[in-house]
User: Fold Putative TetR-family transcriptional regulator from Actinoplanes missouriensis.
Amino acid sequence: MSQATPSRRRVGPSKGDLREAAILQVAKRMFAERSYEAVTIDDLACGAGISRTSFYFYFPTKPAVLTALMTQVSDDFAASHVWFDSAGPSPELLREQLLASATLWRENAGLLSCSATAAASSEPLRTLLTQTKIRYDQRAAAKIRRDQADGTATSDIAADRLAEMISALRDSRYNRLAGATDAELHDAVEDLVTAIQRLVYGPR
Assistant:
């Protein structure tokens, strides 16, 4: 009796996966170095070693590339939010969260700037950025509500409003981190730890 030849399964990423990854890698570098308008589809295709026609097989538009990159960044930010799962002030976890997210912000400052520009004309990218902010605010508000319920956080201001204020404080400070030194980044984190702790839990 003849034995069936076992099917050969592909091991590792396909050629298409590698090309898509190459486009994203090139795009991340270019958007870090140039303005959104200064990066063209021809630049991205050439940098990835493919033709302009081949580029459209993977991404329909330049904002679609940014959306893919920002999805990765958004997930990285969400993974850094360890303070949101804690109880009470937990300043060390807040510091850990802010240090991780501030570092991500500095590393992706150019990409974030380009995304803000492109979002004006790209609904999918605009939706992603909006959902990312909503997810952050919701997790912050949920933590604050738990802490208000156990009496550690102030109840003078609604949790949702406090979460929005934290988000505004963070963004205002992080927007100045492009090109910041490690010392400047750590100073920004310490400023935010102090401000957020006082805002949510009062002077201690």
